[in-house]
């Protein structure tokens, strides 16, 4: 069953006024959001960010990850471009949920990295399903993207769903002394495209 477009409104932010559109997935009983600036239905590739929900980073200012920094930078970049969309993908903790993410944090406090913590809890390294997002892009009339991401799996998932990724736009922000192992694990175990300096395990200085 297709996603259902439920409501839309204007969302003024520090970076500009977005059109905020809410969708419901009746199969998964989940909600998704699209933040849109400009006309994204024209043929030119759309600057886009597929952002996975991270309550601790997005709303509670956690320095354990780079999620909140990526969200704010993507919103600012899209607003400055005058045309683009950010999909807010509500699969917390790479799909394991908020409370399991906190359990994974506790395991990380004991020395596990993010992938090891997920495995110890009985989950895959990444439980997310991006098929909803491909469907949502299509519902918005978008076929080709300039995708703001460091994650090769997002690129591959959208391409496999038939979307054209014309350009991958890097999003390297939020590096600090608290998330160096997190970022290094992203690069070495999940294949994320990160700056070379972040791959080094002894690199702990804020940037």
Give a description of the structure:
There is one protein chain. The protein has eight helices and seven strands. By secondary structure, the protein is an alpha/beta fold. A seven-stranded mixed sheet has the order 1-2-3-5-4-6-7, with helices on both faces. Helix 4 crosses helix 5.
Proportion of helical residues: 25-40%
Describe the biggest sheet? Answer: 7 strands, mixed
Using DSSP, what is the number of strands?
A: 7
Distance between the termini: 45 Å
Strand order of the largest sheet: 1-2-3-5-4-6-7
- Classify the secondary structure makeup into a structural class: alpha/beta
Low-confidence stretches: 196-207
Order of helices and strands: EEEEHHEHHHHEHEH
Give the amount of beta strand, in percent: 25-35%
Mean pLDDT value: 88
Integer-rounded radius of gyration: 17 Å
Q: Can you tell me the overall shape?
A: globular
Instruction: Please tally the helical runs, counting DSSP H or I stretches of 4 or more residues.
Output: 8
């Amino acid at each position: 069953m297709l996603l259902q477009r439920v409501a839309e409104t204007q969302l003024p932010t520090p970076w500009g006024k977005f059109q905020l559109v809410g969708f419901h997935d009746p199969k998964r009983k989940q909600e998704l959001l699209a933040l849109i600036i400009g006309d994204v239905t024209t043929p030119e590739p759309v600057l886009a960010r597929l952002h996975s929900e991270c309550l601790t980073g997005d709303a509670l200012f956690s320095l354990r990850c780079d999620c909140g920094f990526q969200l704010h930078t993507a919103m600012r970049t899209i607003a400055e471009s005058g045309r683009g969309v950010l999909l807010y993908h509500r699969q917390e903790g790479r799909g394991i949920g908020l409370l399991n993410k906190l359990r994974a944090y506790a395991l990380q406090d004991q020395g596990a990295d993010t992938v090891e913590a997920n495995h110890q809890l009985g989950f895959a390294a990444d439980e997310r399903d991006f098929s909803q997002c491909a469907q949502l892009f299509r519902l918005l009339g978008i076929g080709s993207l300039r995708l703001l991401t460091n994650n090769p799996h997002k690129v591959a998932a959208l391409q496999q769903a038939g979307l054209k990724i014309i350009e991958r736009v890097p999003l390297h922000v939020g590096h600090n002394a608290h998330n160096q192992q997190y970022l290094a694990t992203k690069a070495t175990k999940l294949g994320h495209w990160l700056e070379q300096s972040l791959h080094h395990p002894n690199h702990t200085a804020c940037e």
